[in-house]
Amino acid sequence: xxxxxILVVVSGFSGAGKGTLMKNLIKKYDNYALSISxxxxxxxEGEMDGREYFxxxxxxxxxxxxxxxxxxxxxxxxxxxxxxxxxxxxxLEMGKDVILEIEIQGALKIxxxxxxxxxxxxxxxxxxxLRDRLAGRGTETQEVIDKRLRRxxxxxxxxxxxxxxxxxxxxxxxTKELHSIIFAAHNAVDxxxxxxxxxxxxxxxxxxxxx
Amino acid sequence: xxxxxILVVVSGFSGAGKGTLMKNLIKKYDNYALSISxxxxxxxEGEMDGREYFxxxxxxxxxxxxxxxxxxxxxxxxxxxxxxxxxxxxxLEMGKDVILEIEIQGALKIxxxxxxxxxxxxxxxxxxxLRDRLAGRGTETQEVIDKRLRRxxxxxxxxxxxxxxxxxxxxxxxTKELHSIIFAAHNAVDxxxxxxxxxxxxxxxxxxxxx
Lengths: 211, 211
Hints:
homodimer; 211 residues; alpha/beta; five-stranded parallel sheet; four-stranded mixed sheet
């Protein structure tokens, strides 16, 4: 049975360790493809076109959106961010599970357009640990930390829109859990309608044949 | 975080290999408890009270049912079959995932009473393989095989009431898949409402504390 890939949306609080988790997941297992977003914001130091993002002009982005070439897009801080459709669909067809690391608004748009998408939310073991991690980076001002915590409190209101939570305490344990959730999702009844219908028809043929 | 067990219902066509699969699952992993049904039918040769079933009189069974001591029960071929409540609830409290191997009618009753129960359906890779397995036992008459195939065709109509299917081709692969599905189910958002609510409150305390 040739199985199609699953569209997996991963969201989570800033500081929950999503980025490291995604990198580890893709390194460990070969059934994943990470979708790269398109943005109109300027590349930051060290960012490379086609690795962190596809960096494009506002005109290119708007043209792409107009042509239906983005599965979702949104505007933050005067910049567009979106998910190119072509890559996602090609990888799903090839049987790859495609990971989109996007925020809650984008996640809800995806769920609307692709009801069989799997929505995962990465959480720290506790709020205090989130605060400590944000502070521990040592690169952020208190103001930025407070802003992130306020944003986490807001985002936490939307967790019920997701299918699963993953608690990122130990990186390896969490990676395994994440993989296990996606692996199991392939067996959901609503992702196997073709196989089930086929089994019914085969059984009916056998039952009729016996008469 | 002390986690509660999940009530797992396993159904499947006769000949799909449920019994062997359950035995292998319980042998390999220590988080499972297999619920033993109570029945009024007579023990067959080799069956032991408290292992295959709890064998009781009709009066004992009906008294148990009247007192609410069964999570579900049904009557097949003039005999009662039911799931004793006490064992199931004690094991769930201890954090064990409790497996009920029951038929579709019982499965639907469980889902009604325990909406967070996980319903799994074990299938053979194909209908022809099911027929070959039933015939291959060499112990069944053609009439019995035909009856089982007709019953499988009927049961196949109800698969959409289940959450996941498991295709039993290779025993070890299938056991791992089954375990992975149950393991992943612990992370479902609706099984972690307490943790999520707690995180929200902690975040709100931090956000208010900063002001």
